[in-house]
Amino acid sequence: MRRYIFILNPFIYTVLISMLTLSLFRVGIILWQWERVIETQGIGFVLLQGVRFDIITLTALLVIPLVLTPIITISKKLYKHWYSLLRFYLSATILFIVFMELSTPNFLIQFDLRPNILFVEYLKYPKEVFSMLWTGYKPSIILATLIIPLVAIGFYRGIPTYKEKSLRCHQAIIMSVTLLVICLISGRSSLGHRPANPSIIAFSSDLMVNDIALNSSYSLLYAIYESFGDETGGISYGEMAHDEILRHVKDNMFVSEGDFISNKIPTLHNQKATNILTKPKNIVIILEESMGAEYVGRLGGIGVTPNLDELASQGIWFEKLYATGTRSVRGIEAVITGFTPSPARSVVKLSKSQRDFFTFAEVLRRQNYDTSFIYGGEAHFDNMKRFFVNNGFNRIIEQKDYTNPLFSGSWGVSDEDLFNKAHHVFEKQGNKPFFSLVFTSSNHTPFEFPDGKIELHDTEKNTENNAVKYADYSLGEFIKKAKKSSYWDSTLFLIVADHNSRVRGANLVPIERFHIPGLILGGSVTSDVISRISSQIDLMPTLLSMAGISSVHPAIGYDLTQTKKISKTPGRAIMQYNSTQAYMEEDQVIIFERNKQPTHYQYNNGNYIKHEQQNTDLITKALAHSLFTPLAYTNGLYKLPD
Question: How far apart are CA 559 and CA 255, in angstroms?
Fold first, then answer.
């Protein structure tokens, strides 16, 4: 028996140190987020499930060397070399665990969740990310740089030293099989139909508190595992026949049956512009980084957007516009393609949408518009360049195309430089019709912008509030120039946020944190307010109609100029929050969670009230829309005809 125990000593040591480390970090997060944790009345649950998922994580990380070690001890010579490799592997394991836990506080501050697939995706862009981290999180980086090597060295030295031990062949096989069975049981951690997964810890409506029960190594690895399902649309919230999905979606588009024109592309339809013009308008979309409603005075925010607040009375203002997600690529997906959100990654990143996927730009390119993407950073970020070039954008203007910019930061040139470039490009268009997506970046952590441009809202310079105020200043200066330009009278401008700043809260989907500003301006645009609930996916059909562009496309968003058709129907918005989705019609909300039945709530000022009598018709409609996204993506149903 002593021989067996000795062989397992390195693993016992690793498990004990890891369990202690993960528990200490978990307790630390609980104390840090005490008010939110205590509100759920689930401290015991979080701690107990935490131990469960720590065991699952360690099983996954250690199962292969654990099962192989008894077999390898049969050969004393091989075992000696194996033991050296094992010490390095176990040290790397504890290093990974500590690194992920040290990374968690800053990730929680930014995303209100433990590290997930975004953690990996950001690592694909080292220049932008490491510049951002060094500028915004320098103390954390220095602390981690000091702690992690000390932990690795201390752990490595603490692993029991090698002693020559061996097992007979039959003993090794029995031990390996026994360990494999134990690992299968502990890794599955369930006698049910499904192995344990993050659905088990979804005990409260506060997703952050639920996430505390996990550890960051598990949350990251599970997110990577789930991402392999993105090419089929990610996790599904239910089942429905394909014909029924399409029927519900088409019935909710407010398009006459005779205007649907294809069986192969079911939602493809004729959209007739309500604004009849001799010459259609140019269209410019200004996508403002992270400009949530909480900053905008006109929407009840703190008022660091004086220019936008003033402009709101000069065009068509959206009072209740909601983003579809929490990332820039989700905002691009909604505004540029009109595609509905899903638990999978945005179509900007998925493989099947990298060619022949419907976009605003492709519609206009086919109508002889010059189509451009103007950005202050590197356009390869989040796969934007590849997606745009392959789906209707004639040209890309990015950081390398700026000569002597006024200011450059972690994410590229300043918003002033961006708008100066855009103004120059538009002035040169002449009579050529154009469409452009102008994407700002100054309001992005670490919130860098030039000195002397604004009166600071906060005493400390590089804060969100100050960055928003600078972004608003840059926007205001651009609009002043545009109003005096040759292109103002012939152009529609949409100013809209890609998403809110930091979406967080104690609700399954914190709807109030999806509220964003939206404004349509232009020389011929008269002042109006759209007070119905609207989604980013409604903006493209609305702009096409206002610009006098009749077209054929598969987008399912509403043309909000069709007031007679939609006036008697409720506004709706669809919001994706991590793996949870909300479908909202006025104050009625359907919440979808993975591996759970959909739930019907009444929503009012951040409060959810569960209906005792669930509205099955609304649930069916909401489910159809959630299933339309993977159906259309997987089967190539969201495109223009050749």
Answer: 10
4 pLDDT above the threshold of 70: no
Burial of residue 642, with CB atoms counted within 10 A of its CB: 0-12 exposed, 13-18 middle, 19 or more buried = exposed
Q: Rounded CA gap, 413 and 422, in Å?
A: 13
Q: Environment class of residue 105 by beta-carbon count within 10 Å: exposed (0-12), middle (13-18) or buried (19+)?
A: middle
Q: What value does the mean pLDDT of the chain take?
A: 91
Q: Which amino acid is at 186?
A: S
CA angle 308–388–365, rounded 5-degree value: 85
Give the tens place of pLDDT for each residue, 587-600.
999 999 988 899 99
- E strand or H helix at 37, and its extent? helix 34-40
Q: Is 586 left (phi over 0), alpha (psi -120 to 50) or beta?
A: left
Tokens of 208: 């952050």
Please give the share of the chain, as a percent, with pLDDT higher than 90.
71
First-to-last CA distance in the chain? 72
The order of strands in the sheet holding 528-535 is: 395-397, 370-375, 434-439, 282-288, 491-497, 515-522, 316-322, 528-535
286-313 in b/e burial notation, b at 16+ Cβ within 10 A?
bbbbbbbbbbbebbebeebbebbbebbe
Is the pLDDT at 1 greater than 60, yes or no?
Answer: no
- 180, 71 Cβ separation under 8 angstroms: no
- What pLDDT is attached to residue 504? 65
DSSP assignments along 477-495, one per residue:
HHHHHHHTSSSGGGEEEEE
Question: 């067996």: which residue's tokens?
Answer: 4
Of the candidates 358, 353, 498, 493, the one whose C-alpha atom is nearest the C-alpha of residue 436 is 493
- Per DSSP, 428 falls in state T
Q: Which two tokens stand for residue 503?
A: 């979406």
* pLDDT at 579 (0 to 100): 87
- 124 pLDDT exceeds 80? no
The pTM of this model reads 0.83
Encode pLDDT of 266-320 as tens digits. 999 999 999 999 999 999 999 999 999 999 999 999 999 999 999 999 999 999 9
Among 259-268, 418-427, 496-505, the minimum mean pLDDT is found in 496-505
| Six token digits for residue 212 | 């505390």
Long-range (24+ apart) CB contacts under 8 A made by 594-597 are 594/198, 594/199, 594/235, 594/237, 594/343, 595/194, 595/197, 595/199, 596/199, 596/202
Q: What is the pLDDT of residue 561?
A: 93
Per-residue pLDDT reduced to its tens digit, 165-212: 677 888 889 999 999 999 999 999 988 767 888 878 878 878 889 899
338: amino acid identity, one letter: G
Torsion angle (degrees, nearest 10) of CA 61, 64, 69, 70: 120
**Could you tell me which of 520, 428, 468, 190 has the C-alpha nearest to residue 306?**
468
**Residue 241, number of CB atoms within 10 A of its CB:** 9
DSSP 571: -
Coarse DSSP helix, strand, coil percentages of the chain, rounded to the nearest 5 percent: 50, 15, 35
Total residues belonging to the chain: 642
